[in-house]
Design a protein that fits this description.
Length: 143
């Protein structure tokens, strides 16, 4: 039984070899905030490594939804191309955490809360949900 895919192998975005040059300020910010660091806080990746790490982390999710390896590869290449040419940059948690064991890539969460001073149980449930999402951040609310 043959497996077919509706992947278009026409000239993917990533086949373009030119990249936008990053400004010096961009390089400083990437180094300070986003590059993975070793135990001495020295960067172990550059901009290309950062974009490659994030692109792979985003593309690999497609495997869970039945994508073929060639589709994952094309998605990786297209994400990399878009980031490297500054057409698209994900949010900070994605740049910091994608491809690591650090957890979430979301910058915000929307949680329901009834608009009532009498809804103490609702408030308790909200704090429980917040703790499940990010224990460290909720602790900051109390200090």
């Amino acid at each position: 039984m043959a497996v077919s895919s509706n992947v278009s192998l026409q000239f993917p975005l990533s086949e373009t070899t030119t990249h936008k040059e990053l400004s010096e300020q961009s390089k400083i910010i990437l180094n300070h905030r986003y590059y993975l660091k070793d135990e001495n806080s020295q960067p172990i990746e550059d901009a290309d490594g950062l974009f490659d790490r994030v692109a792979w982390a985003l593309a690999k999710v497609d495997k869970q939804y039945g994508a073929l390896p060639v589709e994952v590869e094309l998605t990786h290449k297209d994400f990399y191309f878009m980031m490297r040419n500054l057409y698209f940059l994900p949010n900070s948690p994605t740049l910091m955490n994608a491809g690591t064991e650090q957890g979430t890539m979301s910058a915000c969460f929307v949680l329901p809360l009834n608009d009532s001073m009498q809804d103490i149980e609702g408030l308790a449930n909200l704090y429980r949900q917040l703790l499940l999402i990010s224990p460290f951040k909720i602790l900051l609310l109390f200090f």
